[in-house]
Amino acid sequence: MLVDKGIRDTGRKITCHWMAFLYPIFGVCHPATVKILLKSSEPKNKQAGGGYFTLMPWLGDGLLISDGKKWERNRRLLTPAFHFDVLKAYVPIYNKVFDIFLDKMEEATSGGKSTDIYHSVGLATLDTLLRCVLSYEDKVQEQGSKHPYVNAVRTLTHIAVKRMMEPWLHPDVLFRFSSSGRKFFKYAKFVHDFDEKVIKERKQALAADTSVMSKRRLDFLDILLIARDEQGVGLTDREVRDEVDTFLFEGHDTTASSLSWAIYSLSKNPEEQQKVYEEVTKVLGDRTHVEWSKIKELSCLTLVLKESMRMFSPVPSVGRITTQEVDLDGFKIPANIEIYVLIQALNNREDLWGDPKIFRPDRFVVEPEKDPYSYVPFSAGPRNCIGQHFALDEQKVALAKLVQRFKVLPDPDYEPELDLDLVLRSQNGIRIKLEKRL
Known about the structure:
Keywords: Heme, Iron, Metal-binding, Monooxygenase, Oxidoreductase. GO terms for molecular function: heme binding; iron ion binding; monooxygenase activity; oxidoreductase activity, acting on paired donors, with incorporation or reduction of molecular oxygen. The protein is built from 20 helices and eleven strands. By secondary structure, it is α+β, with helices and mostly antiparallel strands. The protein has a single domain, classed as CATH 1.10.630.10. The strands form four sheets. Strands 1-2-7-4 form a four-stranded mixed beta sheet. β5 and β6 form a beta hairpin. α11 packs across α13 and α14 runs antiparallel to α16. The radius of gyration is 22 Å and the shape is globular.
């Protein structure tokens, strides 16, 4: 894989991989070349065969995929949805969701059993988003894959990734008539119908009682519906739907990856886990509810999370396509060429990190400040992740509650097999054990 090559050739700033000997795909894996691409306004590669085209029938043209003036306008309109005052109101939801998650984990690991946490973490992060985005609560974690919305999102993600690896299904006409395509569009219709129903009902409620906004917590959908640009024009119903679907997809799967690897990292590094436990005990005392004001005091936990995202980048790479010739460290890349920022490779370069395979959170404190483009777990530049503070706060709440209640232990018979996909997974799951603290 392209990312594997980038990791092996850590002395390089640019890598090249030929797709079926037909055309080249480039990768950048050094701060000097990463900076050039991420600071540019080059669009996402959403043409047939590009890194994002299989998601478009589901996610539409939301922030993840759109570009140009549309992206600039909608990014401005969505920014208020991630203001600290809005995020603060979500913290009680994080606590409720992960109380359910921890109860499920206690049952799954009773008697010293090892368990694969990835699926359960993913259900929890999706549960969080449905509650925060749509104020939707329907026992998502309890029903698991049996829940129709959960099943639909999982199926759409799986088919979209699978289609990327099957060039014969890249043409839309062939994909639509394939068994995978029929299933994909069936579930996409279910998700779209669900979203549109919720959006329609919310618009009617807001129109009937304009004071409702001051009577309850605003969710993501409320803010999308009231957003207006400089001309007083808001988002269309289709744009609202695209942004809802984009945030539900991006926010739950990438956070599930990050949080799962952080839990695994705690299990493999007991000394660092003990530091986090002592900090959580000091900050929270006997309280099991993590308050907004306490999150910023969890500095040791934050360092652990940063280091985990360095070693296990939730999004291994992000892609762009050139619209004009780009100079990368003296190498001329012509227009209409795919270039990927190899985040996993960048975060594991020996010339940047010295000992990248060693889990060492204090590297983010004691080492001289690096080029800001040497560590980009949420991308960087104008298209950095708009929801990164949402994701980080959610994970900090989850990890604080976890270490307060359990000691996280490794499974001695397990080693992960990295799967560098849209998000970083493990081909054999992510397994740990839990021991309840006295």
